Amino acid sequence: MVPVEVRGLVKRYGRVLAVDDVDLTVERGDVYGYLGPNGAGKTTTLRILLGLIRPDAGSVRLFGRDPVGEGARALDDVAGFVEEPAFYPYLSGRQNLELLGTLDGGSPAVRIDEVLELVGLPDRARDRLGGYSQGMRQRLGIAASLLRAPQLLILDEPANGLDPAGIRDMRALISGLAREGITVLYSSHLLGEVEEVCNRVAIVDHGRIVFEGRLDDLRQSFGEHHRVETGDPERALAVARASPGVGAERLEGGILRFEAESRDALDAFTVALGAAGVGIRSLTTERATLEDLFFRLTEGEPAEAAA
Amino acid sequence: MKTAGVYRWELRKLAAQKRTYAGLGAAAIYALAFVIVLTIKTRNSLPSDVPLGSQIRNSGLALPPVLLVFASIFGAPLVTALVAGDIVASEDNHRTLKTIFTRSTGRGSIYAGKALAAASYVAAVLAVTGGVSLVGALLSWGFHPVRTTGGATVAAGHALGLVVAAYAVYLLPVLVIASFAFFLSTVTRNSAAALVGALLFALGFQLVAALPGIGSVKHYLLPAQFNAWESLFGRGDGDALIARAAWTCALYAGIPLLAGWLYFRRRDVAGD
Predict the structure, then answer these.
(1) Best of A88, A91, A147 to disrupt the B interface by mutation (most B CBs within 10 Å)?
(2) Chain A residue nearest residue B109, CA to CA
């Protein structure tokens, strides 16, 4: 069964189209980044996945079951949270986990100890939640999710409120869970974060998915950027303009930047430079960051889906 | 079994909240104040126009039922709605519905567990009220037989059983108030609105019951059910009045509980 299968999902709030015909497939073992600017509809989609709100159209299946129609029964192998995790402030962290364990049919004390240890909260577990920082609540949210021993973890901005060390720990935790075979659907606006842990991404803007697929495919869809330093930049620019498969050329401080459609086009360009008597001092390939790609997608034209 | 688990945790949650103790404390203070006021009153100023009112100085067992007469207008609805009106709304306040709705227990069990916990709290409030007033009155006037409204004298031991039964019968209309507060808590998602709404609900029934020309209809209104316990002490046909209180209260409580459930089972938990 596919962990997440979403087809034609639509959700409106009055005149606002929060989710616009979203299709999404998360395969088993994926660490899947769900990216978009604030208000793009990420959290609304995750709420529908967790059965918290009903869509106006479309279907959702988690391991083949419908959380909208079946409710809690469809979430047996699923855990997660949307927005910041919420708990009872007048109970301790441990009591909150005990309560949630009861709602799951009972969790042994040793399992609660394990998850508290895993998120680094064993020393504060008996403190009332009212005294927890946002980062500690975020950790407790992860602990509450892991308590269910899920096969699919749905996390909405899990790094919110965490300090740099906490973000690093969170990243390691998610990578570790993925190695154990847990599928993770991870919404975030921290692009570097997603880039480090996710193998697949969907980029959503104004409720619509503008890209869905592997990060490498996304990078490839925009072509590779290169920088070449030569003894004669002006002549190198003229050669670039005459070379097939080379584009977007421009000089930046004596360095020629350009895109090549393929490795063959790049090879042909370097040969052409030599033939024109232009010496190459260095040639480097720039790897587009997810941030570059994200802004080009959400502020420019949508790319072809590469999945 | 899942409902039982939710119920146990709802009781633990109530035990961890100040609001619960405020309600129970108010009930205890009210009962104690009632005992003190009647202790210092002169014999001529006793509430002799209410059932057992004239018996207060003769037996400590008479005061707890008399207290029920005065609690029905404002005190019982207020203390009841304080917690019953909060038990669902507080989930919205703490934004925890999204946390509990994404576990393995269905909404039906959650709703039922909360309703049972609210009912248990109401029972606890009456137990505290009755217990404090009984101890205070026994200390003031002793454990003596009681002369009922019908003129019969009831032995002290039997009268104690009747006092407990009176509180059990009185619990029925109070549960109606709790059910309405619970309903408002569910649909308004606001504790204050539920509290005020429940008080207006109780007051509204009192006003309707006071209207002229409604004839025998008033016997089926909520205020009449607050008085059903009096039949235990010789007023009217005991079994019939209590049976009527049971089915009318079941009806009055069932409607808001059902309406609340229909809303709760389908409600969206959208942006907080």
Answers:
(1) A88
(2) A103
Q: How far is CA A114 from CA A86, A121, A126, A143, A171, in A?
A: 21, 10, 15, 9, 19
Residue bearing tokens 């207006």 = B200
DSSP readout, B172-226?
HHHHHHHHHHHHHHHHH--HHHHHHHHHHHHHHHHHHHTSTT-GGGGGGSHHHHH
Mean pLDDT of chain A: 88
Q: In this complex, which of A83, A88, A103 lies closest to B103 when CB atoms are compared?
A: A103
Q: Using the beta-carbon criterion (under 8 Å), do B104 and A104 form an inter-chain contact? A: yes
Decide if pLDDT at B179 tops 50. Answer: yes
pLDDT of residue A223: 67
Query: What residues have CB less than 8 Å from A294, skipping those under 6 apart?
Result: A35, A191, A203
Q: Point out the least confidently predicted range of A6-20, B33-47, B130-144.
A: B33-47
Tell me: the pLDDT tens digits for B195-241?
999 999 999 998 998 888 888 888 999 999 999 999 998 877 768 89
Q: Model ipTM? A: 0.89
pLDDT of residue B22: 95
Beta bridge partners of B159: none
B72 contact partners, CB below 8 Å, separation of at least 6: B170, B173, B223, B226, B227
Cβ of residue A52 closer than 8 Å to a chain B Cβ? yes
Distance, in angstroms, between B98 CA and closest chain A CA? Answer: 7
How many Å apart are CA B86 and CA A174, to the nearest integer?
38
pLDDT at position B83, please?
94
CB contact under 8 A, A90 and B16: yes
For residue A91, the chain B residue with the least C-alpha distance is B16
